[in-house]
User: What shape does this take?
Amino acid sequence: DAGITQSPRHKVTETGTPVTLRCHQTENHRYMYWYRQDPGHGLRLIHYSYGVKDTDKGEVSDGYSVSRSKTEDFLLTLESATSSQTSVYFCAISGRGTGSSYEQYFGPGTRLTVT
Amino acid sequence: KQEVTQIPAALSVPEGENLVLNCSFTDSAIYNLQWFRQDPGKGLTSLLLIQSSQREQTSGRLNASLDKSSGRSTLYIAASQPGDSATYLCAVKSGGGADGLTFGKGTHLIIQP
Assistant: This one.
C-alpha cells in the first residue's frame, strides 16, 4: 500500500456527468500515475505526473484530464463520462529520494460504473 | 511499442508443487521489470523488482529471473500453498524516471489444498 489512498472507492454515475477521482499519498514520491484495468486488456496507463503541475499522457488518455497542484494529490477527471470508461482505476507512485529504483506501488483502486 | 505476454493465462496445481510463471516482452531495451500479485477485488502488491542489469531476485519462496536479450522473465514459486492463489502480473518499465509500466494480462493461479 505504501501510504496511498484513493477516493471514492466505488462510484456509479450517469453518462455525460463529470467525475473526479482522487489519489493521495503520504510517502513523498515524486511520480504519480493513473491506470485503468479492464477484462481482456489488463492495466493500461492513462496519465502520469513527474512533479507538481507537470503531467503527460499515457496510452489511453482520450476523455481524461489530470491535475497535480501539490506533491500529495493527483486528480483524474472524466469531463463527460461514457459507458466505455466503466473500469477499475488504480493510482500508483514511485520515485522517492535519490537513487530510486523506480519501483511502483499501487493504491486500492476505484471501481467506476457509468450507466 | 512494447508488448508484454504472460503464459499460461491460468494454472491450477496441487499444494506443495514448485511452479514457473512466464513473461515475455518484445523490446529488450527495458529499465526494469516488476512482478505483482493481485487478489480478487484488490490492488496490486509488488513482489519483486529486477533492474535491467540484474539476472535474478529472490524473496522468500519467490525467485524471479530476467533474460533481457531474449525478452523473457520467469517467476518461480517454491512449495506452493493455497494462500498463493491469486493473479500474478508482469510489468515492464521501458525508460527511467517517470515512465509508466506496460503490463501483461496476468496468470490466474489456483493452488488446490
User: Anything to note?
Assistant: The CA atoms of residues 46 and 60 of chain A lie 5 Å apart. DSSP finds no helices and eleven strands in chain A.
